[in-house]
Amino acid sequence: MTDLIKIFPEYEDVFYDDMENYKKYFLPICSINLKLIDPAEDQWLHIVSVKEIYDGCVGEDTPEYHTEYTKADMFGFDVIDGKYKFDADWNYFSAHTVISPENYGSSYSDLEIEYNMNEAMYQLKKEYYQKHNKLYEKDFNRPGLEVDDIRRLERLRKLTVEDLEKDNYSEYAEERLQNKIFGIFEELNTNALPLEECNFGGENLIEKPFKPDGTLMDYIACLEGYDFQQNSADQVFLFYDKGLKKAVICLEYT
């Protein structure tokens, strides 16, 4: 692993301000320095996800809070001193209820439960990575997390890194991890190719970040979202434009 990549970075190293809200809605996955692509470009960018991924598109029910680069399944950020400032209103998001154990008996929507599931799985996978210095790569077979009520959250929160270490070996999962670039990326666009010429061409992206002149922002990298949370996009794309000082995350489902 290179020091130009940071997996599971801290919120304070990724986001510019208003840390309370970033911790409420976002999940920092990976930081990448553009020196990996262009040695002359000393710029940190970040691939992040969101906690409320569950059913449908994130932000589809709040179009009144969309911006040029924050729409359904697309999140825009101003890049300031190597950190992200979200370019839309926080009301863009629909879920933020933290379910505490003493309130398991209350009634919650599936979206509220999955918001908490995504946070819990993220923390579990982060702890595993910090202990083993690699992403989780075993057979995560837990039917008990598929029940249709609050018990799935309760069970997930009880899992520990030690539980994951006891999971069965999976040749498929191990090979999948070995095939990742730097142990995390599905694709790193080191040749600065146009998106449509890349292996992951974003054919199923419902929104793409176009600049004012109509051209697409530079495609930097993509990774698989399920390595980091319970419900996720299949691919999480990072785009960037140096002139606009904008980074954009797009979610793709295939």
Give your account of this protein's structure.
The protein is built from 6 helices and 9 strands; from the N terminus they run βααββββααααββββ. It is α+β, with helices and mostly antiparallel strands. The protein has one domain. A 6-stranded antiparallel β-sheet has the order 5-4-9-8-7-6, with no helix packed on it. Strands 1-2-3 form a 3-stranded antiparallel β-sheet. A hairpin with a 4-residue loop joins β8 (235-241) and β9. α3 (110-132) packs parallel to α4. The longest helix has 23 residues, at 110-132. The mean pLDDT is 96.
- N-end to C-end Cα span: 29 Å
**Count of extended strands:** 9
Residues in helices, as a percent range: 10-25%
Strand order of the largest sheet: 5-4-9-8-7-6
Organism: Elizabethkingia bruuniana
Protein name: Siderophore biosynthesis protein
Which tags fit this structure?
Siderophore biosynthesis protein; alpha+beta; six-stranded antiparallel sheet; 6 helices; 21% strand; three-stranded antiparallel sheet; 9 strands; 254 residues; globular
Secondary structure: elements and pairs:
Layout: E1 5-7, H1 11-14, H2 19-25, E2 26-33, E3 44-50, E4 74-80, E5 83-86, H3 110-132, H4 151-158, H5 161-165, H6 171-178, E6 185-188, E7 218-224, E8 235-241, E9 246-252
Antiparallel strand pairs: 1-2, 2-3, 4-5, 4-9, 6-7, 7-8, 8-9
Helix pairs in contact: 3-4
